[in-house]
């Protein structure tokens, strides 16, 4: 076990093992709900370091729970390991997994002195599937006194300010026909999508500030001489909060209804997951993280326009409504290369990625160490008037 100067946990002793784990995940990307190898490799890593491991956690085949220690206070490190369809680990979830697992491993020596139980919750399907929301509904996270994870980005941005987001699947069903001989017999599902996209483009002038609407068409037809009978797509609607999201989502749905009405096709507008919430940051934990980040030489002064990855939506926001939590972004120093680009997947292995693993695991472990090593004072009180631990035990904030 590495004990850094000042008696704080560090991740250097097991860094090579964490790098191997991260690179293995990166080389074998698995998409939402399909992370079978990633779950197995995560379980094996944590078992190797003495954690009690439960696979298929709470009935989810690709979720893992691991625990170390028997203390009355509980700190949770959250692992993500799903990849993006067609882009692999272009959001860097392999690094998230290594940082969270590494932080838990580094903190083990303090489990007894700090009266801690160290939990690792490996959650599937962050990329649109809402895996943490499903786990939260099944009883995960709620007994934690603090939940932590860090997310890679082009630059450091400690405070998470994600949009609330709704993910919807769109399907138009019309009637196929020969495009030259019998066009009047068809009902063009592709035209329905075109009309919906035009309506969405016009809607943007009336969108409230701080909102986003975007998506893709995934099915557009099979042959140019056949009127498409079916088209499909995936659409995301984002707003500053869940309260603002639902009325905006309804306006987006109406744009798709316009396409169906104009083309005499049928519309299915179906949620792919529960909406992701805005984030509720634990200020004391964030202050500790930020102070330690500066102490180890992290640069937190990147231009504002480089730091906007902290606006990306996450189902960790739903967890933060029930448990004190932070979700800092840690930089690979690669701007203008940014998340969800093939070039970002490339920098999620190598020298910069290895530094992020070591720094991120160390910072998460040190944040938890200091958080539980001293009792919160009046200045650490939650804005609602209770300390973070009291907020968790009283049931947390709104879902």
From TrEMBL:
Domain Peptidase M20 dimerisation: 169-260
Start-end of Basic residues biased regions: 390-399
Cross-referenced CDD domains: M20_Acy1L2
Family recorded in the similarity comment: Belongs to the peptidase M20A family.
NCBIfam families: amidohydrolases
Top-level taxon of origin: Bacteria
Residue ranges of the region described as Disordered: 374-399
Protein name: Peptidase M20 domain-containing protein 2
Short name of one Pfam family: M20_dimer
Taxonomic path: Bacteria, Bacillati, Actinomycetota, Actinomycetes, Streptosporangiales
């Amino acid at each position: 076990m590495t004990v850094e100067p000042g008696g704080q946990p560090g991740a250097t002793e097991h860094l090579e093992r964490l790098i191997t784990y991260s690179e293995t995940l990166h080389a074998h990307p698995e998409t939402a709900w399909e992370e079978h190898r990633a779950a197995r490799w995560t379980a094996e890593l944590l078992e190797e370091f003495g954690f009690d491991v439960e696979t298929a956690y709470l009935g989810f085949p690709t979720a893992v729970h691991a625990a170390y220690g028997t203390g009355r206070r509980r700190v949770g490190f959250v692992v993500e390991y799903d990849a993006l369809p067609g882009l692999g680990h272009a959001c860097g979830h392999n690094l998230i997994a290594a940082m969270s697992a590494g932080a838990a491993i580094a903190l083990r020596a303090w489990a007894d002195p700090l009266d801690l139980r160290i939990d690792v919750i490996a959650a599937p399907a962050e990329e649109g599937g809402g895996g943490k929301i499903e786990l939260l509904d099944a009883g995960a996270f709620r007994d934690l006194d603090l939940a932590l994870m860090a997310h890679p980005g082009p630059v450091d941005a400690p405070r998470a300010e994600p949009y609330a987001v709704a993910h919807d699947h769109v399907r138009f069903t019309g009637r196929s026909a020969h495009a030259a001989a019998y066009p009047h017999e068809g009902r063009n599902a592709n035209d329905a999508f075109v009309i919906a996209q035009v309506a969405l483009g016009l809607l943007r002038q009336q969108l409230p500030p701080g909102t986003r609407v975007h998506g893709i068409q995934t099915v557009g037809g099979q042959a140019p001489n056949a009127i498409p009978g079916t088209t499909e797509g995936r659409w995301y609607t984002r707003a500053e909060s869940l309260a603002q999201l639902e009325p905006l989502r309804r306006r987006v749905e109406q744009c798709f209804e316009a396409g169906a009405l104009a083309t005499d096709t049928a519309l299915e507008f179906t949620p792919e997951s529960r909406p992701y919430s805005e984030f509720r940051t634990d200020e004391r934990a964030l202050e500790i993280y930020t102070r330690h980040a500066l102490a180890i030489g992290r640069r937190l002064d990147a231009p504002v326009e480089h730091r906007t990855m902290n606006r990306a939506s996450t189902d960790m926001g739903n967890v933060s409504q029930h448990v004190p939590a932070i979700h800092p972004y840690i930089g690979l120093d690669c701007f203008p290369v940014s998340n969800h680009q093939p070039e970002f997947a490339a920098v999620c292995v190598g020298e910069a990625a290895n530094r992020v693993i070591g720094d991120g695991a160390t910072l998460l472990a040190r944040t938890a160490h200091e958080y539980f090593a001293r009792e919160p004072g009046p200045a650490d009180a939650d804005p609602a008037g209770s300390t973070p631990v009291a907020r968790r035990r009283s049931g947390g904030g709104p879902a």
